[in-house]
Amino acid sequence: MNLARRPGSPRLAASSKKNESQLAHPYHSTDLSMTANLSTITCIEDLRVVAQKRVPRMFYDYADSGAWTEGTYRANESDFQKIKLRQRVAVNMEGRSLRTTMVGQDVVMPLAISPTGLTGMQHADGEILAAKAAADFGVPFTLSTMSICSLEDVAQATKKPFWFQLYVMRDREFVANLIDRAKAAGCSALVLTLDLQILGQRHKDIKNGLSTPPKPTLRNLINLATKPRWCMGMLGTKRRTFGNIVGHAKGVSDLSSLSSWTAEQFDPRLSWDDVEWIKQRWGGKLIIKGILDVEDAQLAANSGADALIVSNHGGRQLDGAMSSIAALPGIADAVGSKIEVWMDGGIRSGQDILKAVALGARGTMIGRAFLYGLGAYGQAGVTRVLEILYKEMDTTMALCGRRSIEPGDRSILLPGTYPT
Fold it and tell me: What DSSP string describes 345-359?
């Protein structure tokens, strides 16, 4: 990973003259005091608290929950905290940069925004707003198959290519059509999710009566009445259903037909032969998401994919599985020379990103973190998330005595505190 600073960057050169609370980021110059509220937001947890107040409970819980006991969901975060860093002093810290590439795409930091379903229910037009924030900042945005805004909606609203995430459905004609639509939308990479052949049981969703599509219960309607900001946003947009499915899948022309279609479409027969078919149909950069085992990582590397994502679906599928950060080093050691290895799950700070890179990740992805920002403040909230993560990673790297870091460079970590 070449993280050398781009010479002559006016944004970086001027950063020393700005208030320390402002971000020295080469692609983005928004003042952190763009709103009175955002000026007091200093960490991802601050945004989570605001999002919980502003987003209806059933949609907030959908994003902020895991399967069964939520043990794996919690481990994704807590296992990061066990890893300790080595502080170094009297080291030249000038000329730092977080720049790298992910599947050949230049990024200002080793981070992309994960695909998340129902993003447009965290905030009106949520996928469009998040895509704009990511593009302006210089990191990739990934649109989910189960998004509210469609491929075409996001492509029309943004100027830079984004990525598309694909679920494999029983209706292969629909899958082929999705791939073709992603090509037509100019998507620069396809993220193929393999860990959702069946749906993990999420108790909060069941208790909240969350279905596909969401059906408002009396309890949910009462809760909606306490979220006027959210309701006004939804009244102001036409995008309130699954834009990639309704009107595109056979027999799905409205919300009533969508429910029965989604109930039977996730394909439990998914195999590596399907991966090969998708790879050939797509013909571009392919990223495989949902790898947690070394054997599966080797199969992914042999499939010809460009990258794999060490992921347990945010702890939303197999509760009791190991955390993503615990699985990362073994997978990176096994296949990192053959395929780009990334990870997601549990990232709540720039320190977490740095730890993941040190354990072998060339890139990372965030889901809940950006959803908190989106639910709290829309596009500005997503931008704030990226600013926070960038600043935290840059500062931590400096305090570890480094101006750059290569994937797998564990010298910044305290021996005995990290997984191997």
Answer: SS--SHHHHHHHHHT
For residue 374, count other CB atoms closer than 10 A to its CB.
29
Q: Which two tokens stand for residue 144?
A: 């989910």
285-291 and 189-193 beta bridge pairing: parallel
Strand pairing category for 100-102 and 105-107? antiparallel
Q: DSSP class of residue 320? A: T
Longest dimension (CA), the chain: 67
- Catalytic residue numbers, as ranges: 313
The single-letter DSSP state of residue 5 is P
Both tokens of 60, joined, read 């907030």
Q: What share of the chain is helix, strand, coil (3-state, %, to 5)?
A: 45, 10, 45
Distance CA 129, CA 331 (A): 34
What domains are there in the chain, each with its CATH number?
99-412 (3.20.20.70)
- Full DSSP string of 251-276: T--SHHHHHHHHHHHB-TT--HHHHH
Give the whole-angstrom CA distance, residue 267 versus residue 197.
Answer: 5
pTM score: 0.91
Residues in the chain: 420
Digit-by-digit pLDDT tens for the chain (420 residues) are 544 433 333 333 333 333 333 344 443 334 333 455 798 999 999 999 999 999 999 999 999 999 999 999 999 999 999 999 999 999 999 999 999 999 999 999 999 999 999 999 999 999 999 999 999 999 999 999 999 999 999 999 999 999 999 999 999 999 999 999 999 999 999 999 999 999 899 999 988 888 776 777 889 999 999 999 999 999 999 999 999 999 999 989 876 688 778 878 999 999 999 999 999 999 999 999 999 999 999 999 999 999 999 999 999 999 999 999 999 999 999 999 999 999 999 999 999 999 999 999 999 999 999 999 999 999 999 999 999 999 999 999 999 999 999 999 999 999 999 999
